[in-house]
Amino acid sequence: MAEISNWTPDRLPDLSDKTYVITGANSGIGLEAAKLLAAQGGNIVMACRSLERAEAAGRDLKEVARGEVSLVLLDLSDMASIHAAAGNVRTAHSRIDGLINNAGIMQTPERKTTDGFELQFGTNHLGHFLWTGLLIDRVAEAEGRVVQVASLAHKFGRLHLDNLMLEGTYNPTRAYSQSKLANLVFALELDRRLRAAGSPVRAIACHPGYSATELQSTGPTGFFKGLYKVTNKLMAQPAQKGAWPTVLAAADPDVAGGQYYGPTGMAGSRGPVGHARMDPKARDTEVARGLWEASEKLLGYSFPIGQAT
């Protein structure tokens, strides 16, 4: 494994003829990552919930893109939407070089997805779990990568395997932290299973540090919404810089599977990009197995692992 430190996007190779599918690509980290990949020649598929917002962002993206830009409607809180969107991607693309699971919501009031799951866990983890399974063979065709965008918040999370929906114990921050720990645990377990199956796919995790995006304004309410208005101005780095770890994980040739990348300064909130520190609980293989099995049971879906079909 190559040691990566002080990484910047000028280290990217030419990405012509490579295809990157990015959830939540209409704003924030997703859009900034798309711009950096597109500027190097990558073809971008924007998987977004809002057609209007995606089209507006797509027009901006096309101004810097050397490759193709397309979009697909995807609501990660709706299993039917995930199946439909994955079908559309499969029809249009035989190969995916980077499946970038970026979209997410943060610290929302207690709500349910269309299928009855707690909204943050259902969207941030279960939605991406299903999305990845439906497209993993296309990633294998390209010997590509699955990139899971996690968060510093994983350090404060715990996977409540006996109550993943947090019924009777819901707290917006507890639910968010659990979902982001699930993102990281999923990425590491996926890479372990891919390697065991002899698959050419690499699964990689990353986080953006503390970056100013719409995440802090569209989910939180009350005290936290007011707090983030202040801290975004005083402490956060721009979303463009926060996208660097995602782009590193998606396209740098020296990246290894099962790794975690992000800012390395100020307790991981900003600074030079390289190997990030994760909480030891993210490496618990027994918990990872429990999360995987629970995810399959909740979704009624058996995740396919292995070579391209």
Backbone shape? globular
Largest sheet data: 8 strands, mixed
Pick out the low-confidence regions: 227-235
The CATH homologous superfamily is termed: NAD(P)-binding Rossmann-like Domain
Q: Which band does the percent of strand residues land in?
A: 5-15%
Oligomer: single chain
> What fraction, in percent, of the residue positions are helical?
40-55%
The tally of structural domains comes to 1
CATH topology: Rossmann fold
Helix/strand order, N-terminal first: EHEHEHEHEHEHHHHEEH
Cα separation of the termini: 28 Å
The chain-level mean pLDDT equals 91
**What's the architecture, going by CATH?**
3-Layer(aba) Sandwich
Spatial ordering of strands, largest sheet: 3-2-1-4-5-6-7-8
What is the number of beta strands? Answer: 8
Class, according to the CATH hierarchy?
A: Alpha Beta
Q: Provide the gyration radius in Å.
A: 18 Å
Q: What structural category characterises the helix and strand content?
A: alpha/beta
What does this structure look like?
This protein is an alpha/beta fold and 309 residues long. The protein has a single domain (10-210, 243-299), classed as NAD(P)-binding Rossmann-like Domain (Rossmann fold, 3-Layer(aba) Sandwich), CATH 3.40.50. Helix content is 42%, strand content 14%. The protein contains ten helices and eight strands. The protein has helices at 28-39, 51-62, 79-92, 119-141, 172-196, 215-218, 222-234, 239-242, 244-251, 285-299, and strands at 19-23, 43-48, 69-73, 98-101, 145-149, 202-206, 260-265, 270-275. The chain has an eight-stranded mixed β-sheet, sandwiched between helices. Helix 2 (51-62) links the parallel strand 2 (43-48) and strand 3 (69-73). Helix 4 (119-141) packs parallel to helix 5 and helix 5 crosses helix 10 (285-299). The radius of gyration is 18 Å and the shape is globular. Residues 227-235 have low confidence and may be disordered.
